[in-house]
Design goal:
five-stranded mixed beta sheet; single chain
């Protein structure tokens, strides 16, 4: 066991910097490649994250930044897998494959390995064993006694892997391929290079050992996902001859005790020695050696040949198994941590290794403190590298490491990480501890509902280590969170006005930028203008409008755009909101106009039928046409005006450059018509509501689907976001309005009151008033 721990220490010292370098390179480059789709997109995300993480943010923005960093990490990993898949598909088509196979070290062909990947959530780490060819002929033992070394070693590793890191493990899948190595032919650099040339897309660990005089050279080769080169190094020289001799001497000492006890009982010494086997000869050599050493003779210069039997070899095999298992576990943990965010398992297993280890007489012992220090330091290096990639996740990462280290006998290492986790949590929220007696008390002063999961993890740690004082403090924090939840529940939205001035379904509503006016468009071919505060009608616009489908107000409050869906009167009109004067009538749509929207800068107007037309709002000139194959139900323009998103009857969302008309990307995922779209005020998230009753949240820059919200029982007709980006409001054909907390994807409230489909929602600029319009011919104003 001491040899296993010594090997683990050397591995951590050598291998931890390799893992750190891999993470740092991934962070710095951000998968920067010109050969695959979306490299510029990834750079934009990294630039965004760097900007936001280097600036002070409010608590309202804090959890949003965490989401960005998490999604960036997920997107990087998934893009990496896509790149690896493309490389896998082409690797066997390389012209030099046949030459590589001439020095191929495995009994499995590359195609068998590349095709063996199962549908795992996490990509398995493959482990190959290149077993040692030990020459036991220098010992007095029979060849048949040692022929099973390779089999015993493989069986021991297999049992350990299957118990703790099996191929079917949900988060740590690891595939041990025993017997695959053609051990009689290949070892060393050429074999590793041949493997890497064809299997670089597969995360692989090779445990290799070979005979070198009285030693075994223990090497590992490793590469993870997306590595440009492999790691290959000798990490230990195992003195197997010395170990075997120590086992033989230990047997002789034990035999001497039994012999002396039998002699004391009066048994014949000669008969006893006949039962002792090779222990008799080994004891004689040992006693001579001790006598010579007592007289000052250097016995290391003598050729002392102890007889080795199967029992010694079995113990030696256990040493080899322990060495291989410890190394395999550390590397597997590092791989799954870096690539899949899975916490390490070896800390939980290490105490049993420390407790049940083998004592090797004559071998210098390794202190438990030494192994724990090196081990904890190695993991801390890896976690610190991950922290640079995901700054806002430092508290969770440090706590994760603490939970792993809590299984070790010395809790000092775990406590250091817990303290670091809490202090970083406070620093990120700009909370000083000077006014408080301890860090957990300071934490209570800044706690939010969104922190509940982190606090529960802290509670689990303190309960595991039996820290009663900290448990009491955590309970107070959880009580504070419960109070916040209760307070939030009490502050439910209130219906303050129901407006009844239309004679048909009210298709669309909008609120002026000053928060004073509500505009409603109706199927009764009228537009009503209302006072938001009093609910009183101010003016009605008419004039050959046709059935109104959509209304939009410019950011300066001067222009009102109206879309008509009554064919052949389908058109778009632009009015002066204050005076009610008609400014433009925009013609060109051949089918009903379902939606209109004005860019945040107030320069362009978008109108959608089966096509989307982009107009100059002030001049009324057409800029370009965006071609859809199905009816367009919803349109939204990003805050900087660089992206227009449109949802259509074909269940797809398309992203465009509204200035040039160039298509950017198509988002698929809904199974019903896309009825509504909204873009967050920071231009990072896209929200879509569909006839499939779901709301989907997308990363606008990458097009990545982040979440799917389920809570309506009919089509989601309208969605709108609160100014601070924390709440989402959705109106549905099920006659309800749901209010969602975006950070947790939970429904906070469900508003009822409409007796027909909720067609449109609008939120006042200060976020205090919600206006809803319905097929029940009414408009409702809610105080939120």
């Amino acid at each position: 066991m001491e040899q296993g721990l010594r090997l683990l220490i050397q591995l951590v010292i050598e291998f931890a910097p390799v893992v750190v370098n891999l993470v740092q390179k991934r962070t710095a480059e951000g998968l920067n490649t010109t050969n695959y789709q979306l490299p510029q997109v990834i750079e934009e995300i990294i630039e965004f994250v760097n900007i936001t993480t280097n600036s002070k943010t409010s608590e309202d923005e804090f959890h949003q930044e965490k989401l960005w960093q998490q999604q960036l990490a997920v997107y990087q990993r998934e893009t990496q897998l896509q790149i690896a898949q493309q490389q896998r598909d082409t690797s066997l088509q390389l012209p030099e494959v046949n030459k590589v196979l001439d020095s191929w070290p495995l009994r499995l062909y590359p195609s068998q390995i590349l095709e063996s990947r199962n549908n795992h959530k996490n990509i398995p780490l493959k482990i190959f064993l290149a077993p040692p060819q030990i020459k036991f002929d220098q010992f007095d033992c029979q060849p048949e006694e040692v022929s099973e070394v390779e089999r015993i070693l493989a069986e021991g590793i297999r049992e350990f892997i299957n118990t703790n890191y099996s191929l079917h493990h949900p988060i740590r899948p690891t595939e041990f391929l025993a017997g695959a190595w053609d051990s009689k032919r290949f070892h060393s650099e050429s074999s590793i290079k041949a493997l890497f040339s064809l299997l670089k897309t597969e995360p692989i660990l090779i445990l290799e050992s070979d005979h070198d005089g009285d030693y075994l050279n223990f090497r590992i080769a490793y590469w993870g996902l997306g590595q440009e080169n492999y790691f290959y190094k000798t990490i230990s020289r195992l003195p197997y001859k010395e170990i075997l001799q120590e086992f033989a001497k230990s047997r002789a000492v034990e035999w001497k005790k039994i012999r002396d006890e039998l002699v004391t009982l009066g048994e014949d010494l000669e008969e006893i020695n006949q039962l002792g086997g090779d222990n008799v000869e080994n004891l004689a050599i040992l006693e001579k050696t001790e006598k010579w050493q007592a007289k000052g003779i250097d016995v290391s210069k003598l050729s002392l040949k102890y007889q080795i039997n199967q029992q010694d070899i079995a113990k030696f095999c256990q040493v080899l198994i322990t060495c291989h298992c410890l190394v395999a576990a550390w590397v597997a943990d590092a791989y799954h941590l870096v690539h899949h965010d899975v916490p390490p398992l070896l800390p939980e297993l290490l105490p049993s290794f420390l407790k049940d280890g083998l004592d090797l007489p004559g071998v210098q012992a390794i202190s438990e403190e030494n192994i724990l220090q090196v081990y904890a330091t190695g993991y801390q290096q890896v976690y610190q590298a991950l922290e640079k990639e995901r700054r806002y996740w430092v508290p969770e990462l440090a706590l994760q490491l603490a939970q792993s280290l809590s299984h070790l006998p010395d809790r000092t290492w775990a406590q250091e990480q817990v303290d670091y986790s809490i202090n970083t949590w406070l620093e990120l929220r700009q909370v000083t501890t000077q006014e408080f007696t301890h860090a957990l008390e300071a934490m209570q002063s800044a706690i939010k509902i969104e922190d509940e999961e982190y606090v529960h993890k802290l509670q689990a740690y303190f309960m595991a280590v039996g820290d009663r004082q900290s448990i009491a403090s955590i309970e107070k924090i959880l009580q504070a969170i419960a109070t916040l939840k209760h307070k939030l529940t009490l502050e439910s939205p209130e219906l303050i006005h129901t407006l009844t001035g239309h004679s048909g379904k009210v298709a669309s509503v909008a609120i002026s930028p000053d928060g004073e006016t509500v505009v409603s468009g109706c199927a009764d071919q009228t537009i009503n203008i209302w006072n938001l505060q009093t609910g009183k009608q101010i003016r009605t616009l008419t004039g050959n409008l046709g059935e109104v489908s959509s209304v939009a107000i410019s950011s300066d409050g001067n222009f009102l755009a109206v879309g008509s869906c009554q064919h052949p009167k389908s058109n778009v009109t632009v009015w002066h909101l204050t005076t009610g004067q008609l400014i433009h009538t925009l013609l060109g749509h051949q089918k009903p106009v379902n939606v209109v929207d004005i860019s945040p800068d107030g320069q362009i107007l978008a109108s959608g039928s089966n096509k989307i037309k982009i107009w100059n709002l002030h001049k009324g000139d057409r800029i370009c046409t965006l071609w859809h194959s199905s009816a367009v139900h919803s349109v939204a323009i990003s805050p900087d005006g660089s992206i227009l998103a449109s949802g259509s009857a074909d269940s797809k969302i398309r992203l465009w450059n509204p200035r040039t008309g160039d298509p950017l990307r198509t988002l698929t995922g809904h199974t019903g018509e896309v009825k509504s779209i909204a873009i967050s005020s920071d231009g990072q998230l896209l929200f879509s509501g569909s006839a499939d009753t779901t709301i989907k949240i997308w990363h606008l820059i990458t097009g990545k689907l982040l979440h799917t919200l389920k809570g309506h029982s009919d089509a989601v007709k309208s969605i709108v976001l609160s100014p601070n980006g924390q709440l989402l409001f959705s109106g549905s054909g099920d006659r309800t309005i749901n209010i969602w907390r975006i950070a947790t994807n939970e429904i906070l409230y469900t508003l009822t009151g409409h007796s027909g489909t909720v067609n449109s929602l609008a939120l006042s600029p200060d976020g205090k008033f919600l206006v809803s319009s319905s097929s029940d011919k009414t408009i409702k104003i809610w105080q939120v």
